[in-house]
Amino acid sequence: MSYQLTPDGRPADSSPTASAPIADDDLKALMRLMARFLRHVRDPDEDVPEELRALLSGAGLSNRHLAPLVSLAMDGPASVGELAERMALGATTTSQLVNELHRGALVRRAEDERDRRRTIVSVEEPHRPLVERCARARTEPLRQALGQLTPAARRDFIRSWRVMVDVCEGRPVPAPEETG
Predict the structure, then answer these.
(1) C-beta atoms surrounding 107 within 10 Å
(2) Cα–Cα distances in Å, from 66 out to 18, 35, 55, 171?
(3) CA-CA distance, 120 to 164, in Å (whole number)?
(4) C-beta separation of 119 from 79 below 8 A
(5) Helix (H, G, I), strand (E, B), or coil: what is residue 88?
(6) 3-state class of 120 per DSSP?
(7) What is the rounded distance in angstroms from the CA atom of residue 89 to the CA atom of residue 81?
(8) Can you give the pLDDT at residue 9?
(9) What's the pLDDT tens digit per position in 26-63?
(10) Is the distance from CB of 5 to CB of 11 less than 8 angstroms?
(11) Which uninterrupted H or E stretch holds 111?
């Protein structure tokens, strides 16, 4: 299956008017860069403060529990469904992670004041500064990288990632925004 995009970011078709094929060297370079990027994102050991590592270990938890903690610290409290969407995980997996974090006293659950059927999850207050420090450390390389780009280049970069994810997930790719 081919994942070619037109210059405006839309999936290419096989018609004669479609854009030129993506060069194999470009695709290989992108795959190598993505592998290196994902290795950094998946291996958080160097970014985890020793105090947080000890807290997780003492609660019988592992590095896989960092993603929901970081998401809650960065984006704020959420329902399990919202947290699952943020992390691109299934609701069952996210619910299991939240249950384990709750048993380890790292997150708290509270009834949503607007909709009592919903439960909102947040980082337990005594641990919030530590988790926020970890979140900052984990996102700092991305912040530095994005800081090297102009605002227009950042918008294009983020849009490019959206296009890649949308195509990989089989969703229609929106047309690029018109710039005036």
Answers:
(1) 24
(2) 43, 20, 11, 28
(3) 31
(4) yes
(5) coil
(6) strand
(7) 9
(8) 47
(9) 888 888 888 888 777 766 666 788 899 999 999 999 88
(10) yes
(11) strand 107-111
Distance CA 24, CA 59 (A): 47
Residues 101 and 72: beta-carbon distance below 8 Å: no
Burial class (CB in 10 A: 0-12, 13-18, 19+), 147: exposed
Which three-class secondary structure state does DSSP give residue 119?
Answer: strand
Cβ atoms 164, 171 nearer than 8 A: no
From CA 179, how far away is CA 176, in angstroms rounded? 9
Cα within 13 Å of Cα(108), Cβ side: 9
d(CA 116, CA 112): 5
User: C-alpha angle with apex 42: 98 to 93, nearest 5 degrees?
Assistant: 25
**If you search the block for the tokens 């926020």, which residue do you land on?**
132
